Amino acid sequence: MLSVYLIPTSLVHAETHSCPEVLDSTQRLLNSMDKVNLCEQYQGQTLLVVNTASQCGFTSQFEQLEALHQEYKDQGLTVIGFPSNDFNQDRGSEQTTANVCYLDYGVTFPMMARSSLFGEEANPVFQYIRESSGMNPRWNFYKFLISKEGEVVAAFPSSTSPSSSALKKAIEAQL
Q1: Please, what's the b/e burial string for 116-150 (b: 16 or more CB within 10 A of its CB; e: otherwise)?
Q2: What pLDDT was estimated at residue 34?
């Protein structure tokens, strides 16, 4: 005779909703003392993680990233920017970076505080991306698509426009 074991819903919920490693950190917001727990805020969402720089030839992509965020945010996509000076193109203060993002380009998607992408001081999000996919950003405005389950499912180089059909198709496949 076949035995059936019912698992209490609370246990199923706890097991299926554990925090994906990519979200297992608290980050300070750009030019702010406010912090956000990535797991609490973004668990279960599709993410487009972008390393940004305010003085780069690709900085104008902020406008297209904002348009992408607006187009898909109600369907479960969040664009998250991670400013970095690792390529020497986000110099000056965080205030300067914030002015470029918020005032010059009207960014409303979350921007985290400036952090490193490489080495021992690397932001935990980029440590996870490197460890799980074997990829590092090669330049500013690399885009990493993270599934609702917290897996890196695609990466797009700086030269890929946020409005490109390839990027949009990859996002739509995850929503």
Answers
A1: ebeeeebbbbbbbbbeeeeeebebbbbbbbbbbeb
A2: 96
Residues involved in catalysis: 56
Distance CA 60, CA 101 (A): 10
Amino acid 64 reads Q
The pLDDT of residue 17 is 56
- Dist. CA 124–CA 22, nearest whole Å: 7
What does the block give as tokens for 128? 């996870």
CA 36/CA 147 separation, integer angstroms: 20
With 0-12 CB in 10 A as exposed, 13-18 as middle and 19+ as buried, what is 41? middle
Does this model's pTM top 0.85? My answer is yes
- What's the maximum distance between 2 C-alpha atoms anywhere in the chain? 71
pLDDT number for residue 67: 97
Q: How far apart are CA 169 and CA 162, in angstroms?
A: 11
Provide block-wise average pLDDT over 10 residues at a time, the chain (175 residues). Answer: 36 57 95 95 96 95 97 97 96 93 96 94 95 92 96 94 95 96
Residue 123 pLDDT:
96
Q: Hey, what domains does the chain have and what are their CATH numbers?
A: 19-174 (3.40.30.10)
Provide CB contacts within 8 A for 106, sequence distance 6+: 63, 66
